[in-house]
Amino acid sequence: MPSSGFHITFVSAVNSREVLAQNLLASPCLRSTGRHEVLIQENYPSASAAYNDALRKAANELIVFVHQDVFLPDAWLSQVEESLRCLEEKDPDWGVAGCWGARADGDLCGHIYSSGLGVLGREFKQPVPVQTLDEIVLIFRRASGFTFDETLPHFHFYGTDICMKAAERGLQCYAISAFCIHNTRQILRLPDEFYTCYAHVKRTWKKRLPIQTSCIRISRFDAEMRVRKLEEFCRHGLPGGRQPAPRGMDPQRILKDLEARQMIMVRSQ
Q1: This prediction's pTM
Q2: DSSP letter string, the chain
Q3: 8-185+245-260 is classed in which CATH architecture?
Q4: What digits encode the pLDDT tens for the residues 23-37?
């Protein structure tokens, strides 16, 4: 169980040092690496390969897998610690935790900011059981023995897969209230790699269908996927369509603007 001096290994699969420096490495809790370990994984063919290699190298028990374009505010570590303490009391055999997730009924849980969408969710006290977690932040203990599926290509749905592995072992996954900024470059048309990964997870976990993720429902007959592809085709075939929101240059400014407008409340421990 984490204590006031707990140590974390942060892992990020990186393809842009500039994005990394402006976001994740600008996070207050990572300005000094004396307390926590940071593993930057570059030049891997998939997120699973990058993260499994990091698991072999990690020095700490608690591992946080986080996107390079995520900014973790001052209170993030204390919020994570508080949530994990709750889990140790409520469900000491918890599987995977994260900042944004989806319940089987389609409800989305967490408290984050995402470019183009704004603040999603709201602050809450107790961790919320979910079916899957978004890949922006995934947290688990090395002692769990989890590894990522290296037959899963590219950089999508590895969060869904790891949550299914937890469920297969009877372990619950949780969304926790730990506000962060996903300073992403908004994508309105999903790449082919997304659907390749969708198909892989569908085949791997066909006995657990349907699987609700934070962005799409994986189902036997692919109803939501078909609607998504049709919407994307129509949107890009029409002139004057919606334009994707760009990545912000300064996530700290985003945070200050949100606080000034009282759109979020961040607890200080």
Answers
A1: 0.92
A2: ---TT--EEEEEEES-HHHHHHTGGGSGGGS-TTSSEEEEEES-SBHHHHHHHHHHH--SSEEEEE-TTEE--TTHHHHHHHHHHHHHHH-TT---EESEEE-TTS-EEEEEEETTTEEEE---SS-EEESEE-TTEEEEEGGG-----TTS-BTSSHHHHHHHHHHHTTPPEEE----EEE-----SS--HHHHHHHHHHHHHTGGG-SEE-SS-EE-TT-HHHHHHHHHHHHHHHSTT-PPPPPPPS-HHHHHHHHHHTT-------
A3: Alpha-Beta Complex (3.90)
A4: 999 999 887 556 799
